[in-house]
Please model this.
Amino acid sequence: MCGRFGVYAESKEYNTQLPFNIRNGLFDFEPNYNAAPSQMLPALYYPENDAPLLERLRWGLIPRWAKDRKIGYRLINARSETADEKPAFRDAFIRRRALIPVNGWYEWLSQKGQKQPYWHTRMDDRLLWLAGLWDAWTDKNSGESIRSFTILTQDAYGEIARIHNRMPVVMQPDDYERWLSPVMNNKTEISDLIRTQPQIELNIYPVSSAMNRVQLNDASCIRTL
Model:
């Protein structure tokens, strides 16, 4: 499960951390230390077959066949092991994959009847790029078009598993381009790419439960207790 994350890198960092050229559409993106479902957040994807585009998509996938956008609230995550089978995700799994840049994510550990939030980030605080899926949905009543994403998850490992049994799929730089490529459309090959991602070591520490309020959105969210 990944229900909150933080993304506060400066615009130039996105380009310098990618091994290929992109179109960067984050012209007015503000740092977000407490990103929550339904918000418009950075995602890297191929809207057409030219260069990948980095822009804000809505967190919570709305499949193109959905009758109502509210389904997106239930589809913020997708299990990587079964995404290729589920009606909401299987077409996007083959044709519309994304990378979601984050500086880290939050997870909660139940302790003595209370839930303590923990921040998960790289040792150097640089961006992590999470495996995601995207889709485009059009409201038949208003004509509004919404592009949205979900984050793929897997079984947690190492110290991460002490906090929660699931975690986002973190992609490695050598695989970014393959993951995004619309040319790669073999279900087994895509699943193998997820399965063979190496384990990563993260800096994990407790933070104030004040961040449970999504209205709190500043650096205090990730300050260690």
In short: Residues 5-222 form a domain with the hypothetical protein yedk fold fold (CATH 3.90.1680.10). The CA atoms of residues 67 and 102 lie 30 Å apart. The longest strand covers residues 128-138. The mean pLDDT is 94.
